[in-house]
Amino acid sequence: MRVALFLSAALIAAPAYAQNNQYELRGVTAETEVEVGQAYDVGATSVASGNAATWVNTGADASVTSRQHMDGDARAETEATVWHSENFLAVAATAMANGMTAMTEGGDLDLTSEQLAHGDTEAVVRFRGGDAGHASTSASAAGNVLAASAENGDFRGVSQQESTGVVNADIQADHDVINGYGASGAIASANNISIAGSTSTTLTDTQQYAGGAVRAQTDFYVGLGNDVSGNATANANALTIDNEWGYVNSRAAQSSDANVEANAYVTLGGDFLGLASAGAYGVGNSVTASNVGSDMELDVMQSNGGGVSANAAMIGEGGEMALASSAAYGNSISAGLCNYCDTNTPSLGARSDQINDGAITSRASVNTPTARTVGASATAIGNAATYQSGGPAG
User: Fold this and answer.
1) pTM summary value
2) Which of 3, 188, 19 is nearest to 94 (CA)?
């Protein structure tokens, strides 16, 4: 095993006010190599991060200011050869320029965060195997990541993210036999923010810019398999808000000039006994917001100038179900409010402006001589906005 990992990390725990400044000028690299003849369970992973910070707040009000700046490259690579794994096999690589996690419970949290990623970020998995019970390969690469959660306390967040390098997640997995379930998933994201709240008022102001390129690809081969699935997801800018029992007011400005590409290729050398599927999803700018039992207000501006492509292909000899689906969006907004979950009858108010100037392409293909069920779909949309207000599902 060869491992070289330089991690600038801050764990902030107690005071009511904290200021975090992190600046990584050089590159970080994590490499893992595994070669196994026979084993019951096998796991191999590599993690590389330029800057990482965590804030945990319990039972008090707090204010946090964080600035993370990464100029170097971040690379994580895992190479594994496993000829026999009787039970579970898991091989993964994760690379990230800047990461921030904030959590509050029983207190209010004010967070101001700036994340700048100016180098390249790459997560690579290379696998060769004989037979396995169940098998999983995954690669995740991100320029900037912010995750925040609040429970029984208000959250107020002002966030800025900028990614200008190449973000790449790539998997090449070659299996002879997978007796159970086999999955391969690649995720690449230039900028990503996720916020979760419960019994919390959530107020956010977000700015995201992505340049360079974002690419996620999985090339998944199985000689003989049962249920096999390969997926690739790539996005330039993404904001997700999931709240319940509290007011939400969110303003977001997303701009992308990055070329975004998601490719998922699944190949079965012989018959597949169950499901064989390939899925690819690519998006320039994405906002997803939901709230339960309280009012929600959204103001979103999205501008995409880069090309977005999604390609999904499944090839097999024959089996039960063969699927391939791909979706590519320049800009996407999805918001939902459950307004019958409380006697107050809350409301959803939204304003959105979307501009797309990038080529959007989507391709899906299935090639199999025989299967009980075959499905293929390709979706390409420049601008999409969906708002839903109603009662609980079911």
Assistant:
1) 0.93
2) 188
